[in-house]
Amino acid sequence: MKILVIHGPNLNLLGKRNRQVYGDKTLEEVNRLLQEVAADL
Prior knowledge:
Blueprint: H1 19-22, H2 27-39
């Protein structure tokens, strides 16, 4: 199975700007979580 994840613009600012709106996870954390979930598929 192959999965393609396309990130949108400005995701490098995750965890840095308006955390109440965008959350506190960084792009690196999001990518790590995606890899963990994908490993279980």
